[in-house]
Fold these 3 entries.
Entry 1:
Amino acid sequence: MSVDAHRDDTGARMGMWLFLFSELLLFGGLFVLYAVTLSTHGEAFAAAGRELNWVLGTINTLVLLTSSLTAAIALSAVQKGNSALALRCLWGTLALALCFLVIKYVEWSSKIHHGLYPGGAQLAERPEGQMAFFNLYYVTTGLHGLHVLIGGALLGWVVLKIRQGGVHRSNFVLLENSVLYWHLVDLIWIFIFPLYYLML
Amino acid sequence: MNSAQSEVNTNFLQTPRKGLGSWIFSTDHKRIGILYLCSVLSFFLVGIALGLALRLELFSPGPTIVSAQTYNSLFTLHGVIMIFLFIIPGIPAILGNILLPLQLGAKDVSFPRLNLLSWWLYMTGAALALLSLFGGSGPPDTGWTFYVPFSAITTTNVSLAATAAFVLGFSSILTGLNFLTTIHRLRTPYMSWTQMPLFIWSLYATAWVQVLATPILGITLLLVVLERSLGLGLFDPGKGGDPLLFQHLFWIYSHPAVYIMILPGMGVISEIIPVFTRKHIFGYKAIVFSTLAIAFAGSLVWGHHMFASGMSDTAVFVFSLLTFIVAIPSAIKVFNWVATMYKGSVTLAPPMLFALSFIFLFSVGGLTGLVLGAPGPDIHVHDTHFVVGHFHYTMFGGTGFALFAALHFWLPKVFGRMYNHRVATGAWLILFTGFNILYGSMMIVGMQGMPRRYYDYLPEFTLGNQIATAGSWLLAVGILLMFGNLLRGCLRGEPVGDNPWGAATLEWTTSSPPPLENFIDEPEVTRGPYDFKGVNIS
């Protein structure tokens, strides 16, 4: 190839941060809807919020925070040249991500079982504020779950790269960016959890 | 010279690899720019055809050529194609891609593969938009704004069109992110922030709006699609939602989007005016500041689209005030362009003619915008043809003419060939005349009370509509003549030198067409972007 190999880790990080800004604003739209609906349907909205299982929510928060910790350790390990530890930590992150999704699945299916889902018969009989709460709950946690899947896929790809030797102590920006993305997934949950499970 | 070096030095149009694959899988920013040029302008022609059909339908009251339902689909598709496929990607994706690395003295953008992905996403979105024309139960009929509740209940292909806009938005975000990183990281070390050409500054401000505003449109359209497919109901008052929230979220993106459209156009004008005046741009820093101010303040004015939708008086007052504030930086630019020309040695070459008509048309569009920004008069002209006329003066008279100016200015650089100047001037005259007849009459019938998006009208509006439709034919003739001349110029025109206009920015220091890696030797910044002392036409 005639084109010089170009590498700019700072640029790659900057690009990732800009992408994370756009992700924040994607969820921002949903948080705006939350704020407005809470102010228009305060009591009914809050009543629906109290039906969520805060125990499962808390466990999921711990699971996701721990997964972020292992991801951060994986990055430090690669920077120090310890690929074996990094791989173990990333597998840990992926296992915790799976755990998060399983718990989410349990939560969703118990609600769906009771007919509480968009367009569901049970939900249609509830007051408007409660309908709005559950609709918003499904969209927000659903979109977040989708991001868990994307972030997991990204980290899985990095695992492959580390094993092939493409990511190592002097070239780790791919891992760093994937971990940044994973922290974003974590960060958004840190806002979803109190707003939906604790505050109402 | 070894073979690898000579490959770098040949011009980018003639790499050893040939065929379609060497274009649609190329990561060269110049080739991607030309891909956008071909695709964006093709959709522009489709949009024009739809617009001509709309005007023909309005030639006489009552049914003329199409049914009312078809008319609704026509204006929806005209809007979706012109907004999402033409004006938003127009200048940034075509000329931004080609010029950004050249003006910065860089070899390419920061993320060339992401750049190619953006084009593929653009084509995917475009394919989905065209697909929504066929199949299902007919093309979407909601207008390009997809307002609920109608968009949630109509049986036409709204979900497909909304998905198309979502994908196009993703393409736009990736382009913005790429440009921002490129400007920060790949600017030649010899160029400081205040030595950057103003076109780059305009792309910089635009890119921030693209990155920060587009996701809001994404989530809004996603919610409409979910409302249609799952019965979600976040915009349905029967389910605790609120249709006004859709309008807020939609305009939180779509008003800043008009600055995504106009800012790069203003950047183009800031490049062209000094070159054909042989004078340094007046108030470089004021233009930079006003560019950033428009991007910032323009993100806070979305409520002025909703004066008739129902908002508190306080909100109406605040949004109106902020709207008027945006007029200040816009006017600063206009005054600076005019001041640049003062006592200059003005040459009326084709790019300059388009640039000058930009100033006139954009001023008309901007001043009629003040009528709409004031809540009192807005209530009277809301949803009339006056709004349509105003919008086309700013977007088509503004961004459209800036794009035409830019094509006349930079295509000789890209292809190394010059179009016919006399034909270009003639095409400009026809286009400019047709434009004013068309949209001027629209504003007048709008003031008289003709509503927008109506397929039928009262007999007293007949004359105004007929004049407008006649103007649309003149406009179309001008555009076809202009594109024909440009196309012929690019392919078979007279070869020109590296700097046919005598401009001072970096892209003119390399050969025409530029070599594969833009500059054979590392470019040096020996002069400011508007310092014409000693610059010769070559």
Entry 2:
Amino acid sequence: MGALVTLLHYEWVQTKNSLKERKAKRRALFIIVVTIGLAFSLGRAMGGVFASLDRLALQSPGLARTVEASLLSLVSLAVFFLILTSGFKTLYERTFESDDLPFLLSNPISVKTIFTAKLLGSFFYILQTVVLFTLPPWIAYGMIKSAPVAFYMAAITAVVLGALLVHSLLALLILLIMRFAPSAKIKQIALGLSGGAALVIVFVSQIAGSRMTQEYLQDPLVLLEQVGQWGIGDNPYLPHLWMSRFALSFLPSFDFSSWSNGLPLILSSIGLSYLAVSLSGSFFLTGWTTKGDAPVKAKRRVLQQTRTFWPHGRLMAIVRKDLLSTKRDPLLWYNMLVITIVLGFFIYNLMSDVPVEEPGMTDLWMIRTMALLMPALMGSVLISQLGGISISREGKNWWFLCSSPIEPRTLYLAKLAYAVLIPALYGVLFQLVIFLAFPAVSFFPPYVSIPAIILITLAVAALMLMLDILFPDFTIKIEFGGTAGRAAGTTKLLLSMLLGFATLGLVGVTISFPAWAGRVFPGLTTMASYSMTVAAFLMVTLATIGIAASISVKRLGLLMRKL
Amino acid sequence: MACNQLNFHIHAGELFGFLGPNGAGKTTTIKMLTGLLTPTSGMARIAGINVQEQPVLAKKKMAFVPDSPNIYDKLTAREFLQFAAELRAIEQEEATRRIGALLGVFELSERADELCGGFSHGMRQKVCLSAALLARPRVLFLDEPTVGLDPKSARLIKDILRDFVSKGGTVFMSTHILEIAEEMCDRVGIIQSGKLIALGTIDELRQGARHVETGRPISLEDLFLALTTKNEED
């Protein structure tokens, strides 16, 4: 026990020391502010939903309570999904790939103690995200219901125990995989399964969203009955129901038992943790020693064949290198699948909701704006994880580009081209598909929409790349199965995405100008509003690209001489 | 300050050893010479080109291999070398020929089409050195080139460097291993606390220096320790 406390203490000291630098402190402060902001927004949104249900309770108290229980069970289920989708990689890296393991294992400390320390370390790390996204709805619900303090304590306990349960289950799974099948292939399969679970969530949420839009949104009561019929509140043997019922048992309006829901939750989470720690005594060392066996081999390829159609030159060599690396990164394929699903459902929803009559000016321009913004939004997510941080993603290999005879301008253009290529291709395809599939809807014709989507993507990519060049973080590690690395990496990712969304917001306001111009400038003619839209759009995108490029090239020159 | 008042000249066709204790400023010096770090004052010329004023032109004349041979995990060794060749604007057919030859020399042909992510430190070092030699630079900068290599690989690299110098190339190599400096280098420079405290051939540095107790000529190790200790005391 003493050794465990010592190990945990020094884990904490390391975390504390990493915040001693001024920059790190600023980053931490930024993350805290954004985190609190996100948690607050989520809580407010859920609070609004619960307040509406509270009003419904006056007419139909039974239905309102069923829906509330169902929603809170979903929130509990989110704890499991969050850990299943992003926890595997964190847990694996913190337990099996931690740099200090050789040192720790060479000391007279039991393997179980070391594993427990690593397990707890990763648990507290993952718990931060889990708490951020799942506790605010509970707090919002408690406030609406004027719940006693015991309810909040029970909600916190339920979230922590639920997280511990799945975390321990994953730890067991990793231990077994590493002990009996310590090959890189198995790790890939497990990561694939984890990503698959996330894809299922995206798919299901899109179906639900689509059905809600088409069937239930006209009548809120039908929607609530559907939510109540999901049946997630009926089965008493599911852990996420133990969680929600345990917390709800502290409210007088629910007659759930604290004991019959709390006890299995406590026993299963602590029991699984104990089992994982016990097994680590015999499994961990073998798994750790043999990890990395059987490295993944690339298929043999003939050099001339792969290069026949590729243009030459330094710029194209860098683009090709980045594309080749990305092609072998499951993160790209995963994101492309998500984007395909989301855009596919967007088209499906459009198909089911094609206006019979020619829409009015406002509706028409809103549809046109959405048709441009949706693929741009999806593209910006892709850019924020790949091309938009492609300087940081050079990581330890950055020395190679710095020591090669490349002009900063060439390097910048190569990185910008890489950032834009895939998202722009998606955008162009999307514009062509909607234009051909919906001749009845007056979308922008391709000669307008294609240059427009390319310009929007370029502007977003240029801004994100500029941010990356101004604040590079060569330790950033964004991979399939979760984001790892220092807190700086998370800050960068958040900032990058926020910047992308803000740019798209501005572009959206510009494109949709004819939709709202009449209200602001009553005497404005249609032609004048069109002309102003085109001029403003070109000015916003081209100025963004130009200013960002100019700053980036200058800064890149300095960065390349500051290794 | 990592480096202070450094002033030296390396001749063409020379294998120069740059010695110094940990934290003396060896890597910082190499970074400044290769244009990877801008000095607060002073200048460096490589093959007559001012590195700070014309970094791209200077980089065309030289190649650098760092102490940690980090290369792209998601590229195969052949793809990485092809990438290096394109950055150096080597014509495709010529690049393919040189890559094949270098892979053979470094005994990497068998694994040339495997991802570098699965390579050991030694193999990565060999890939990095191949990339550096691919461009046939006039000056080769190597930071601790033999650290972490098995004796066979270390020997191979030593032979390749000798061959490179015999063909007129210049090598600037930092090392901790005094035997390597003694065995290979035409001249050595010893740096401590950012200052160059000795410069010359091994024989020149030894001249006049005798072991205090035995009176016999001292080894490079003794000389290194004597010089660095004396400088510390000063």
Entry 3:
Amino acid sequence: MTTFLGINLFALFGQLLVGLINGSFYALLSLGLAIIFGLLKIINFAQGAMYMLGAFFAWMALSYFGMNYWVALIVVPLVVGFLGILMERFLVRPIAHEDHLYSLLLTFGVALMLQGVFTHVYGSSGLAYAIPEALQGGTKLPFMYLPNYRAWIIVASIVVCGATWWLVEKTRLGAYLRAGTENPQLMQAFGINVPLIVTLTFGFGVALAGFAGVMAAPVYSVSPEMGSNLLIVVFAIVVIGGMGSIGGAILTGLAMGVIEGLTKYLYPEASTTVIFLVMVIVLLLKPAGLFGKEA
Amino acid sequence: MKVSKLTLILLVAALVAPFVVYPVLLAKILCFALFAAAFNLLLGYVGLLSFGHAAFLGTGGYITGWLMMNAGITPELAILLGTGAAGLLGAVYGKLAVKREGIYFAMVTLALAQLIFFVYLQAPFTGGEDGMQGIPRGELFGFIDLSDNLNMYYFVLAIFLFGYWLIHRTIHSPFGQVLKAIRENEPRAVSLGYNVSDYKWVAFMISAALAGLAGSTKSLVFQLTSLTDAHWHMSGEVVLMTLVGGVGTVFGPLVGAGTIVTMQNYLSGGELGNYVHIIMGAIFVICVLAFRGGLVGEFQKLLKRNAG
């Protein structure tokens, strides 16, 4: 029962699962980028480095302080988010009135520094982080073996993405945020502390990357390069989806992960390039992106 | 073309320099200066930040390197073809990238460059992780031996001057005026009836071809092309060189390339070698926060203040 019409279902579902997991990380990172972009109109090039920080902090917390995975999953995103807040307050804000390309370069510089520091201290070979005890093992499904931790990644990231979507689109706080996106001056005139909202939003967007980093620690090796490689793919995903909507960022992230997984099964040589090729096609057919509004 | 006193002094300095400083280091600086100048043509004069220029540097290097090793042609032909290949890639990438603006343009170029990076990583002709090593320099026009470092340097200097001249001509042509108009106020340029995307596209092609020229030349100087040349770090480095030197200035890319290459050269020898990326990141942050004009830009501001 492992083949159907000549298709090796075991391998196909295996790759689809890997694709969904990659897609979960794509979704979390592009969601963070989209939230920050929505309010500040800047792209945080350090988002990948923050994801890397999340993974390293989880590893350090376990190795040096014996902090277990579940505590790290709460504490590390808070710490990373706090670093993001410091970054917004002291580096990004002073140049907020300049061309937004400068903030891209600034955050790129921050990313280089962080990556350089961790390469210097821990080398570039990568560290291992054990899967938490409660999630070891797996479940045998008809067509495949589903490791528990991998199922957890997919569920947790969908829950976090969904909660963020709900927060932004359905709550009063989210309404402030969206209003700030539309017209910050008017918001300020209504007595809302817009700079505070901007800072907190930046922190939240970065914290999402930190959360993704903790989740990634047990499945990918924890290395200084892990963030930058992922981020470039996420940039392509952002171009594909457009940054018009929160939901769009989440859906595009997951979908691209699945497409990548399918490609790994059908034509493995193209698996590293397929998302970039999709970007090319989208640029040709719908330059504003699938969910984008602006030209 | 009016030649200023400053240009003349620099020219004489460039001719004498190889007798004082190691010619290969000078040639390296000139290659990167040309690379940065090509990048600056886009950022400084059209306002487009490309984060994928390593793609063109790498393409020039790989094509020229492969031709020198396998085709048995003279170096000037190999460089010409390498440059052409980079220009061709630039034509395709440019057409796609100019569909988006600002930050999106940067992301599109970065992603497209990563696409070609993976192609070079997997393609058999590039040598994958090892890169192309031992590329022969050959004999220029069939009779000037380039394995002599001094000959090589003067050849690189000639290419560099040609590239700078071409950029100078482009900026000061009617075409260049339109580019600046697009940078200053794109909607106005559109309303005046200019096909803005086509202007951007042609500028992108010229920039890509010149970046390829730099890569082609560099592959002969070092007799080596590797994935480093096509890696996104390289795209970031050229941004940094231009930023440090001064975006939108004529001599900025030269000063920036000289500064960064000398710094890397100095650091890689000492115990600070591990800190290169940290230092480069720090320079990025400091430049953006405090010296957005770069060395040349800030210097010009100082001169103006004293004069006025």
